[in-house]
Write a structure and sequence with these properties.
mainly alpha; TMEM205-like; transmembrane helix; transmembrane; membrane; 288 residues; TMEM205-like domain-containing protein
Length: 288
């Protein structure tokens, strides 16, 4: 039996390492900061410019909402809401104004940069909103949300969508007629474009004034009945459940489908008009 110092392989190959004295592990550990000595301001969340701007936009919308609620309580709103006379008046004024724009002028004003921006901006925003609402937003939400949630979203979007389209189509019509009414009767091309844009504006105006309010009212009635019956939570399909034997509900449902189908057809008519004008603009760009 051998008695003596056992030399490891590391000491044999490198005697310097064998003579090293390692420090205590506690001495080489990084010292953590005392939580009580931390600056309390260092942990606070600082909003960036996007967060600050969002906050002020929220405040602005709250002010607008309060003014809107005050207007809803006024007698003027009750007259506008519960009677059809204002809608008839707006429609009559719009038809007269469109007829006035269709009258041929004697001078041909030059198209300034501002009018070009307004014309192209309104048309492109109008056509983009139609494509998004018809083929993207509606289908995506219908196949992703429950039917009642989808209906609630449509109650918010429908009035704003047709109001936006009406305003944008009016701007497009106004600028187009302002710069082309002097040569309106010189070619069929200009006349067809004027008629198509006018038709688009009037169709969207009629939908907003006459078809959207009853549609929203029927959606509210349907949702109330369906919630009591425990239906309307299905996603991507339409299941009436036990309401298919309710004559009152079926009558409301039939009216809803009729108005909804009419709005869908008129929306496609408006899209056809804007597509025709898009073809007209593409021809103009090709001739440059």
């Amino acid at each position: 039996m051998c008695v003596g110092k056992i030399v490891s392989d590391i000491e044999r190959t490198n005697p310097v390492i064998g003579k090293l004295e390692f420090k205590n592990v506690e001495q080489v550990r990084p010292q953590t900061e005392d939580p009580q000595s931390c600056n309390p301001d260092r942990g606070e969340y600082e909003q960036d410019i996007l967060g600050v701007s969002t906050k002020y936009v929220y405040y602005l919308f709250q002010v607008i909402k309060k003014l809107q609620q005050q207007f809803f309580k006024s007698n003027s709103y009750k007259i506008l809401r519960h009677t059809t006379q204002p809608a008839h008046f707006i429609t009559a004024v719009s038809v007269i104004f469109v007829a006035y724009l269709m009258m041929p002028g004697k001078t041909h004003p030059k198209m300034s940069l501002l009018w070009n921006l307004l014309y192209l901006g309104s048309f492109s925003a109008h056509f983009g909103a139609q494509i998004w609402m018809t083929f993207v937003s509606g289908l995506a939400l219908f196949f992703s949300l429950s039917r009642h949630t989808f209906g609630s979203v449509q109650q918010v979007l429908f009035p704003k969508y047709f109001l936006l389209n009406t305003v944008l189509s009016f701007i497009t019509l106004f600028v187009f007629m302002k710069t082309n009414n002097s040569v309106l009767l010189e070619s069929w091309e200009n006349l067809i474009q004027a008629l198509s844009i006018s038709l688009c504006f009037l169709v969207e105006l009629v939908v907003r004034l006459y078809f959207t309010p009853p549609l929203l009212r029927l959606i509210g009635i349907k949702h109330k009945i369906e919630k009591e019956a425990g239906v309307g939570l299905e996603v991507g399909k339409y299941d009436l459940g036990k309401l298919k034997d309710c004559p009152y509900y079926l009558k409301i449902h039939k009216s809803f489908r009729s108005i909804h189908m009419t709005i869908a057809i008129l929306n496609l008519v408006a899209m056809a008009c804007t597509t025709l004008h898009l073809y007209y603009l593409s021809q103009k760009l090709c001739s440059i």
